[in-house]
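Sat 14:20. Reprocessing the chain from the morning session after the first attempt stalled halfway. Input below, unchanged.
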Amino acid sequence: MSFVTGAVARAAIVLVLFNVASKLTALVREMVIARQFGTTAVMDAYLVAFSLPSVLFYLFTGALATVVVPIYSEYAAAGREREAWGLFGTFFHVLLLLLAVATALGLLLAPWLVKLLAPDFPGDTLSLAASLTRWMFPFLIFSGLSALFSGLLNARNIFAITALNGPLSNLAVIIAVLVLSSQWGIYGMALGVLAGGAAGMVVQLPALRRAGFSFRPGVALNHPDLKRIFKLVLPITLGFSISETYILIDRYLASGLAEGSISALNYANRLIQMPLGLFVTAVGTAVFPALTRRAAGKDLRGLGEGVLRSLRLVVLVCVPSAVVLLMLREPLVTLFFKRGVFDDRATYMTAAALFFYSFGLIGQAGEFILTRGFFSLQDTRTPMILSAVAVLVNLGFSLALIGSLQHGGLALANSIAALVNMILLTFFLNRRLGGMWTPEMWRFILYVILASLAMGGAVEAMTRWIGLPALSGTFALAGQMVLVAAAGLAVYLAALTVLRIEETRQLWDFIKHYLSHKRPGGMKD
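Finished this time. Tokens:
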């Protein structure tokens, strides 16, 4: 019986489609922001101001999504869905109170928080960042509640409406920058972020109501499962906070570098996030409920198979993606960002960061999938400890490399830490499940690397043949990039076919299934 079921396939397809919309609108958002603000001190101030609420947002998103799904699944498996809604109705009120308190503290302590996070900012930039922080902190309430709602809907295998959060948020920021920034400047963008966060929360409410959720508290505060939620959320939150320390370390150290260093790292990271958001997040989110069911049923063999198959799929996509990002870094940055105040200097700084980030793409992708394996076992402690190790690795390499490579050293330190974390996660999960590092897996990785190198050769040859980027203008450069990408993709797929990689057949099965609305052969629930 194949682990990749028709339900998972359908969910993955839906999420991929919505993630495409989310990432495309996110790319347009970054293009609009880059055109308006570039790599300037104003943009650096905004990114520092948004650091704390956005980091806390990712903590709540990750922690709640990974706790809500397995606990709800336990209740559903026992036929106690009504009790589950009562439990999470109480949790909603507790969470709202915690978010309100955190927001109030953020508003009160904004100047000190910014001084702590970016101590080397000039006075004007520091004051602007403190003011923007007060504008941005209410985003935490919208995003935290949205994360809870998404987790509950995903637990019911409702994915489409939750995936609207990204596009709605991105569109709000795009409109705000285009309409408000001429008069309000960077504050216009801050208002767009708040509007987008509120929209992402509100749009889920009708689906949540239809699913059976009630906002009335359904259990007492001393309920054992409410305590269990917090017991599970706390280490996951600590684990995610440790992993998000990457961002805080980068912005702390980059605040003393050349103006625009923080912005350049941010723009480069946005490009790195494209393959992660388009594919890896979709696969991980869609497969997680299935993983938790395998774990709840004590089917460790099935759980291991699911993690391994998901890992193979992301390796298949992320290794060639890293090669493309590395080789075409400057044309990509030019295509997406070089307009308005985003000049040659900004292009060079962002391309340098993208070069070093590319080496860690597979590490970030593997980390996302592997942690889901631990979370499905309700083991939150191991990923937390390994994240702490990775942060120390990141800090050490950041301090060692920043002097010679400047902001590029910070990007490279991130990549090294991500790879170390993936290796450690694989080692310890293999001890729990076994069978992950078989000769077949090593052969698969070798074949993907060989196919990616062949693709890289085709990209290099095509780049030289057409003289990329010889033409000027967005559409002309985009046409050149499409030709180069098509040549590379054709060679990569041909190489995979020759090497007989199993996942290429599965990919075509998924596509045929989506187009015909039939269950692919060999994929049974």
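DSSP finds 19 helices and no strands in the chain.
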